[in-house]
């Protein structure tokens, strides 16, 4: 819990008052810390001198929104002690180094728990903290490849389609880390005992496929691409090109939605093909031909207000302008950057984008003051080592 009597940075959201230390990295760790910050936590990112590994202007790195930053050189003689000063006052620490690196730097779980037994120590890696591949480098595409999930995505006669780094890094990685550290925080507050959370992208991504493994075991899923109800094998669950080279997405699975879909396409004669696999080739060809006859926007107008479960495939820059997403404020503009708004939504403790991306080292003095960091001899608190 936060230290009694110490001022803490006011936040909004259900995690207001929770303190998080993020040891700077790239990818899923920063995103997980952003999600905690969006939910109201006071997230202090410990940046290294020289910046992160990806060459993005810090002003545009929205995964650092709602955070504060200090710069600490962990390889300097006083670096580890400064991080431990923060860990002593934190509820959660997040790091994404390879296994053993935090220990070698002097900021591993043992050192942190000696200072703060209640600390939840979250570890974000691709391969996990143990196993034959644990010490190896990797990226999203390799992690999801081993779990069987990458091999499910794409056409039957095409290479697997890479879903950006959304499936591994963020769904199988960041989201599982956040669930893990919040569950461990609940336990720590009930018992006074912190613990280590080992969030491996391979574990989380495998876990995402739980339903499909059940279907596979029951004989309801073929272990190959483009042959199943939900992987593009079904002609009424997938995407179709339109006359202008854009696409419509179709998800008309249930009978009444399928019938409405066919009616609006002008293909009522194919109603009987829904459950007849021998007609799926004909069904796909007829649907494709119809979609190819008009533009995406024309088809969007046709399906407007219907329960046919059809939607236009929008680009990243188009999405914020869709009437539904605009009405909900799914995207927001902050500091000149269009970005997804915090999610999910809370009735009693609303969330918001409070601040733009934290600039490395910009909040050194404020964090030291708010967190009650003791001054070290001959140095400033949480010194900024440039």
Note down, in words, how this protein is organized.
The structure is a single chain. Residues 1-8 and 378-386 have low confidence and may be disordered. This protein has helices spanning 28-38, 79-88, 101-105, 109-115, 140-146, 166-191, 201-208, 210-217, 255-265, 280-291, 296-303, 323-328, 364-371; strands at 19-23, 42-47, 67-71, 92-95, 120-125, 195-200, 237-241, 247-251, 310-312, 331-334, 337-340. The relative contact order is 0.15. A hairpin with a 2-residue loop joins strand 10 and strand 11 (337-340). With 386 residues, it is of the alpha/beta class. It contains 13 helices and 11 strands. The strands form 3 sheets. It has a 6-stranded parallel sheet with strand order 3-2-1-4-5-6, with helices on both faces. A 3-stranded antiparallel sheet has the order 7-8-9, covered by helices on one side. A two-stranded antiparallel sheet has the order 10-11. 33% of the residues lie in helices and 14% in strands.
SSE blueprint:
Layout: E1 19-23, H1 28-38, E2 42-47, E3 67-71, H2 79-88, E4 92-95, H3 101-105, H4 109-115, E5 120-125, H5 140-146, H6 166-191, E6 195-200, H7 201-208, H8 210-217, E7 237-241, E8 247-251, H9 255-265, H10 280-291, H11 296-303, E9 310-312, H12 323-328, E10 331-334, E11 337-340, H13 364-371
Parallel strand pairs: 1-2, 1-4, 2-3, 4-5, 5-6
Antiparallel strand pairs: 7-8, 8-9, 10-11
Helix pairs in contact: 1-6, 2-4, 5-6, 5-7, 6-7
């Amino acid at each position: 819990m936060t230290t009694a009597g110490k001022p803490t940075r006011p936040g909004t959201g259900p995690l207001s008052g929770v303190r998080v230390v993020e040891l700077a990295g790239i990818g899923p760790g920063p995103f997980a810390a952003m999600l905690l910050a969006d939910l109201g936590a006071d997230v202090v990112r410990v940046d290294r001198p020289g910046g992160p590994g990806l060459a993005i202007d810090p002003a545009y790195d929205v995964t650092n929104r709602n955070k504060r930053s200090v710069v600490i050189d962990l390889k300097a003689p006083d670096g580890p002690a400064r991080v431990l000063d923060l860990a002593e006052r934190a509820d959660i620490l997040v790091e994404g180094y390879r296994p053993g690196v935090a220990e070698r730097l002097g900021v591993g779980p043992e050192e942190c728990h000696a200072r703060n037994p209640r600390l939840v120590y979250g570890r974000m890696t691709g391969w996990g903290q143990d196993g034959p591949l644990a010490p190896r480098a990797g990226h999203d595409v390799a992690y999801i490849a081993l779990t069987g999930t990458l091999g499910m995505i794409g056409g039957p006669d095409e290479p697997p389609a890479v879903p950006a780094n959304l499936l591994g890094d963020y769904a199988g990685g960041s989201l599982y880390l956040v669930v893990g550290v919040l569950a461990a925080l609940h336990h720590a507050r009930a018992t006074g005992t912190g613990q280590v959370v080992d969030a491996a992208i391979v574990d989380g991504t495998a876990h995402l496929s739980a339903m499909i493994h059940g279907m596979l075991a029951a004989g309801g899923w073929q272990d190959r691409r483009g042959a199943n109800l939900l992987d593009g094998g079904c002609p009424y669950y997938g995407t179709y090109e339109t006359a202008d080279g854009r696409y419509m997405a179709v998800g008309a699975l249930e009978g009444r939605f399928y019938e409405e879909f066919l009616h609006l396409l002008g293909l009522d004669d194919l109603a009987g093909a829904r459950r007849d696999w021998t007609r799926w080739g004909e069904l796909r060809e007829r649907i494709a031909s119809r979609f190819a006859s008009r533009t995406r926007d024309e088809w969007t107008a046709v399906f407007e207000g219907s329960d046919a479960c059809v939607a236009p495939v929008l680009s990243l820059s188009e999405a914020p302008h869709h009437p539904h997403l605009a009405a909900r404020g799914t995207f927001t503009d902050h500091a000149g950057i269009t970005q997804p708004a915090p999610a999910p939504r809370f009735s009693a403790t609303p969330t918001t984008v409070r601040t733009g991306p934290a600039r490395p080292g910009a909040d050194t003095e404020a964090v030291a003051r708010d967190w009650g960091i003791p001054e070290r001899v001959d140095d400033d608190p949480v010194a900024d080592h440039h």
